[in-house]
Amino acid sequence: MGRIVMKFGGTSMAGTERIRRVAGIVKRQQEAGHEVAVVVSAMSGETDRLVNFCREANPLYDPAEYDVVVASGEQVTSGLLALHLQALGCKARSWLGWQLPVRTDDAHAKARIETIDSEALLASMAAGEIAVIPGFQGLTEDNRVTTLGRGGSDTSAVAVAAAVKADRCDIYTDVDGVYTTDPRIVAKAQKLKSVTYEEMLELASVGSKVLQTRSVSLAMKENVRVQVLSSFIDENAPAADTLPGTMIVSDEELEGLDMERQLITGIAADKNEAKVILTRVPDRPGAVATIFGPLAETNINVDMIIQNVGREHTDTDVTFTVPSADLDKAKSVLEEQQAKIGYEKMTTDPKVAKISVVGVGMRSHAGVASTMFKALADRGINIQAISTSEIKVSVLIDADEVELAVRVLHTAYGLDGA
Ligand code: ADP
Ligand code: ASP
Ligand code: MG
Question: pTM of the prediction?
Answer without folding.
Answer: 0.94
